[in-house]
## 1
Amino acid sequence: MTSSDMRIRRIVQDLRSAFVPTPSYAKLESHFRTLLEQRRADVADGIVNNARGIVLVGQSGSGKTTAIRELIRQNKSLLQTDPTKDICEFISLQVPSPATMKFVGAATLRALGYPYSGDKQGPAIWDQVKVQLKLRQTSFLHLDEAQDLARYQTDKERQSVVNTLKSVMENSFWPTGLILSGMPDLKKIVNQDPQLARRLYPIEIGRLNALRDVTPVLDIVQKYAARAKVETKPCVCSEGFAQRLMHAADYEFGLMAEITVQALSKALFSDGTEARLELQHFADVFFDRSAAIDVMNPFVAEDFARIDPRQVFEFDGENA
Ligand SMILES: Nc1ncnc2c1ncn2[C@@H]1O[C@H](COP(=O)(O)OP(=O)(O)O)[C@@H](O)[C@H]1O
Ligand SMILES: [Mg+2]
């Protein structure tokens, strides 16, 4: 590898790790700080209050998982977050499938580092989860893809999920705040029980708006390009371009950022550090992602608003 390749790799790595602050992230951080301060005050005063939590919803690609990762990173100095240490105040896991109470309990025990032997029933597993949460002093339990908690469940099972989640926060000897993130179906689970809904601060990562978000989107493209020290051509500075990019990203913030990073990487890898970012780089990225021919490519097609940007063609072996 030449030194210029190495440099480009480093720039791309830096772009990938960059987090673009958003209003919904600011809200997440502020609610989290409130919860954390309340918790610290309760512990200092020797009071056991019911915990509260956060529910973060958004479509796939909106940026939920990334936002929680950033939240942990930003709060490293205030919170013990290393899962290999005895004390771990923030534990994060993905809801397993199928999301029965037994499976979710077992996955939570595993995330807590507790060797689980598979012969117990749901309630007994959750009793063990609560013991471990206290032992590890876990104040926050994050369940990602939490919309799956409601999938393929009967009403009765769904109620038992809700009751279990509430009991984790109410648990009188060690209440743990829940952070649930998932697709919009998650709202249904939370709203099924007013008590649960009251305990969770709701945050929604909204979709981009083709008119309102033109300027912010163009701004983000410019900021990424500046970070990579890459010049931009006028074709990636227009209102029409911003709308094509939003459409290609299915109006999801995270996907918009991801496509921009990929377009810059493409520019750098094909044209070197003298590259100038242009529309074709975005079109090539969309082709790589979807194998879409030009009439189905939002960066190329005249009538791009008709295109379903999530459609992936089967002749592209990798994505099929
Ligand atoms: N605030 C952000 N800044 C930069 N990139 C982001 C941001 N939010 C999301 N992304 C990017 O968008 C993509 C999808 O984000 P992800 O968190 O996986 O979405 P979700 O969990 O909602 O499906 C990832 O590649 C991620 O790096
Ligand atoms: Mg995710």
## 2
Amino acid sequence: MKPHVWIIDDEPGICASLSLALKKEYEVRTFGSAVPALALLERESCDVVLLDLKIGSENGLDVLKQLKANDSHIAVIMMTAYGSIGSSVEAMKNGAFTYLIKPLDIDELLIFIAQAVEFRKLNEQVLYLSDALRSQGHYDKIIGESEPMQRVYGLIDRLKDVDANVLITGESGTGKELVAKAIHDAGKRRNERFVVVNCAAIPENLLELEFFGYKRGAFTGASQDRKGKFELADRGTIFLDEIGDMPINLQSKLLRMLQNKEFTPLGASDTRHVDVRVIAATNRDLKAMIAEQKFRDDLYYRLNVMNVRVPALRERLSDVPLLCEHFLKQFSTEMNKSIGGLSAEAAERLMHYDYPGNVRQLANILEYAAIVSPGGMIGVKDFPEEMRVRTEHSEGQSVEEYLCSTTLKDIERRAIEATLRKNNGRRDQTALDLGISKRGLLNKINEYGLS
Ligand SMILES: Nc1ncnc2c1ncn2[C@@H]1O[C@H](COP(=O)(O)OP(=O)(O)OP(=O)(O)O)[C@@H](O)[C@H]1O
Ligand SMILES: [Mg+2]
């Protein structure tokens, strides 16, 4: 989308020559008087206004105030034929971006307009970032060197510079959002915005406002123009998170938007076209949802041009140590605590857990431990309840299931192994814990080849 520049000047010659000079880079409109411009601003938005200090009988300063009242982020460049310093100072006080003295130097004007566009963008960025900061934390880099993660990195690499839509799937807490952000950050759109939309959290009647934005006055309470997420993401990436949780009637609206990448903000009269890359994510099984008619198959095929499946943590337990190191470092900094690391037993227990909540759960366990621990090494005693109970049986099985499907010998061997480990190899304590004689324990150790 080209930035919109409006020229308000009663001299047709000025309007025509400026329009000619600007129209290559900007969407230009000219007005011989302020009234129609102000009227149109009710329905359309504009980034920069070049405003004459005297438009016929109209006073440019009054127009400036009205423009700013309508859209406080609009950048207004005053043009004056009189070089009257007094009015120019007054204009700056009322929020003009700058003022230029006629006759205008076109090169200089182009520089100021470019700066004004940037200024407006930054202003919006601030608004957007303060929103984003409130709604989500900062982004960490992706940790993990396991083979399944290498495959993910390979995909990110191949996807980053193409514009194809991407669907990221994977269980909750596996890092789908991190992957989406990584695709954006590594690719050619990295200097533009990465706009997150949580599709599960948008009330049905607000979807259009959220995606497409609105004009001031479009409804009660709309006191400012507000750009929708699609417009904010122009030239960047829009991340449609939790896409599987979007109600089916909204799915069709979204599909329509994705098909033509055109939309009209509520209360506006102009259609806007955007260039956005779409990345969607879900932890749902969309194929199954399609079968149940809860997800539109046409939307699915539009989003799933490329698929990235983020593996569950239990499929890449070899990444656990690196993740632990990363999170412990993060938490000790945040909590200003000196945490030395994990005891051997604690580390071992983390390696033998199946993490239904994936990386998020591991982070939560370690955060809990970091809070509870007085400092120094973190032990099993610092873990939350679910981790203190031993779960050394195969993934996804209950203790009951494990016991029913394992030979007594095997159960015995594992009980001895685990107790020895807990007691750091001390045999008398182990025999005591297991309720057998020391002699009996030694026999078993030999029998099973433990040491
Ligand atoms: N590989 C990783 N390296 C570092 N941190 C990670 C990794 N994967 C996930 N995390 C962290 O775990 C948390 C959950 O990740 P994220 O929000 O990306 O998961 P998700 O797959 O989007 O989950 P959900 O489906 O619940 O939305 C975040 O705090 C994220 O920073
Ligand atoms: Mg997520």
